[in-house]
């Protein structure tokens, strides 16, 4: 499970993760994490549930968006806080979470389901006739269910097609990149998105092998990475294919571009004082969020008011129950008043 989880986040350091700190409520006291509200058969537990609720400061009559529905754990927690007049827009690129949400929501009129990328959030709000939001939550990366399904091609713990699409109808697969990108472009992509130091050795080995036959399965590619990438240093339990798979997944789904587009429009989708909360699992994503919330020049109007100086991370009890959360970082801010 450690190698599997590492595909969606930065490789772990040799030291254990730092103890988390719970987000304070309005009184300044840390909140107790609520029970995860029903990942159930979907197999995906919400990360930092209490902290996300504190960040969003959910009002009963508010309008919110969970732009990464997944197993619906965060959405259920938000719905639990909404009254009859509240509304929640839940987005996902994958139709399976939307079908699952339709089954557990039971026709709840407060929940509005939509298939699409958070890169189109503003457009989707207009299409659905929704007003500016009181809060937005984004939990980045693939869901546990996607990661654990061999047919989706994210994992090398079992053999499956070399796919990696978050949107199963997307035009590009990991096999397309591995078999089609020029060697130099493939090396640059892997290094830029994952920091893999052996990216050029990997790209060279891939280019030589694909002349004989193309790559089509996850284990085929993972085995090549195992032969090429040096074993991890003592104490670092990282499969040699971890960074390669991370880079391919991010490239297939254009995750950096989608996140940048989403963050660029998030402020316009919020009411003044509305909250944006983003959970990231790897450093490139976290840097984009951190830069968004960073104050501009001294004479420039302030756009965001961060809720905390440092990101909130999971504590020991959550890490014991959900190891996938170990690299999670939650940053949150309120939209500052003004245009």
Describe the structure.
Helix content is 38%, strand content 13%. The protein is an alpha/beta fold and 339 residues long. It folds into two domains: 2-145 and 255-335, Rossmann fold (3-Layer(aba) Sandwich); 168-252, DNA polymerase, domain 1. Helix 3 links the parallel strand 1 and strand 2. The protein starts with a helix and ends with a strand. Mean pLDDT is 87; it is low at 1-40.
Task: Throw out a few tags for this protein.
single chain; 339 residues; alpha/beta; Rossmann fold; DNA polymerase, domain 1; 2 domains; seven-stranded mixed sheet; 14 helices; 7 strands; disordered N terminus
SSE layout and pairing:
Blueprint: H1 2-6, H2 49-56, E1 63-66, H3 73-81, E2 87-92, H4 95-105, E3 111-115, H5 121-127, E4 133-139, H6 144-148, H7 174-180, H8 183-194, H9 199-212, H10 218-228, H11 242-252, H12 255-266, E5 270-280, H13 283-293, E6 304-306, H14 316-321, E7 329-335
Parallel strand pairs: 1-2, 1-4, 2-3, 4-5
Antiparallel strand pairs: 5-7, 6-7
Helix pairs in contact: 8-9, 8-11, 9-10, 12-13
Name the helix and strand elements from N-terminus to C-terminus, one letter apiece.
HHEHEHEHEHHHHHHHEHEHE
CATH class of the largest domain: Alpha Beta
Strand content: 5-15%
Record field, number of beta strands: 7
Instruction: Report the principal-axis shape.
Output: globular
Largest sheet: 7 strands, mixed
Q: How many individual helices?
A: 14
Mean pLDDT: 87
Strand order, main sheet: write it out: 3-2-1-4-5-7-6
Brief synopsis:
The chain has 339 residues and is of the alpha/beta class.
